[in-house]
Amino acid sequence: MIHVITTIDNGGAEKQLLILAREQLERGFEVSVFYLKGSGALRESLLSSGISVIDNHANKNPIHQVILWRNYLRKFKGRTIIHAHLPRAEILAFFSQFKFRLIITRHNAEPFATLLPRTMSSFLSRLVSMRASWVIAISGAVKEFLLISREVATKTPITVIYYGFDKMFPTQGVKSLPARDKPLRIVTLARLVPQKGLATLIEASHSLSREGLRFSLDIYGEGFLLDDLKKKVSNLGLQAFINFKGKTSKPELELPHYDFFILPSVYEGFGLSVLEALQSGLRLILSDLPVFKEIMGSSFTGFFKCGDSIELSRVIKELCFNANYDWNDADRNAVLSKFDPKRLHKSTSEIYHRVLRTDDSNFAESF
Length: 367
Description:
By secondary structure, this protein is an alpha/beta fold. The strands form two sheets. Strands 3-2-1-4-5-6-7 form a seven-stranded parallel sheet, sandwiched between helices. Strands 10-9-8-11-12-13 form a six-stranded parallel sheet, with helices on both faces.
C-alpha cells in the first residue's frame, strides 16, 4: 500500500502514520510513504523501520507534484491501496488513476480548507471524499464533526478507528505525587495556537501563584502565538513559574521528568500527546472535550470545563496539591488497552479488505 501525507514532520497525524506503517510492515506488507512538503523530520524513523520513503516530489510546485505522482503510480497494479492523510495529500490522491482504491483518514475536527469560506471548504471536502472508497475518522468527535459539517459525500462510508500508542515509546509506572516540600512539575505538549487553549492554562497558573503554591509549568511546542503567550506570562509576573521549551522531537525523554500533564484544548481530533503522557506515567488534567472522554472514559476525575481558568486552577489544587487523585497502573493500562496498535492495524486492514472485495483467500488471510 502507498500512504500519501502532506508532511512527515513531528505532528500527531505523522506520528500515527509511522505507527500504522510499522504494524503493516511487520505483517509482511510492502509499505511506501509519499510526502509533499516539509523538512521530513520522521524520514529516518520510517527508513530505519524498513518503510520506503518517496521524497523526490517534496516541496515542488503542486501541479508538478500531480504529474510526478501519476507517473510514479504507473508501476503499480490496480489492487494497490492508496491511503491519504491530511487535506493537501487528499487533493493529490484525488488525481490518482481510478483503477486504484483510495482510503482517506481524517485526523482533525476542523474544516478541510481552513483558509477558504466554510461553504467552499465543505464543497471541496465532499468533492475529494467522493473519490474515496472509505473514510476513516480518528475519533467519534471527528466523525460527528464531518457529518454535522457535511464534509464527506453522503454515499462515502465513515468508520471510526482510534489512534494506537507507540510501542517504541517506553511505558512507565504511574508516578507518585511529589512530597509537599517539593514544587509540582507540570508539563504540556501543544502547538502554540488558539486551538490548544494555553491562555487558559497561564491564567490558571496565575491563580495558583497568588495562593503561594509551589509549581513549575514547562510548555513544549512552537507556533505563531509564542510572542503573545510570552507577553501574557510577563504581564502576569509568571516568569519564575512558566518556561517555553520549544518543540521537542523526543517527548519520551522529556515527559518522565514531570508529575502532571495538562492539555486545555478548545477542540481536538484526538490528542496523541495524551497517550504519550499516559505511557510516561503522568497523571492528567484535560478539558472536558468529547474526544478526551472517549479516551479516558466519562468517569475520569481529571476533567475541567473547557476555557474556564478558575475551574482549572481549582482542579489542579484538588488533584495535585490536595492529593485527591486515585490513579494507578491498572487504571492507566485499562485506558491504553483501547489503543493497542495491533487493533489499529486490524481495523484498518478490515477496511482495506472490504474495499478490495477480494475472493483471494491467501490475500484475505494476510490481513
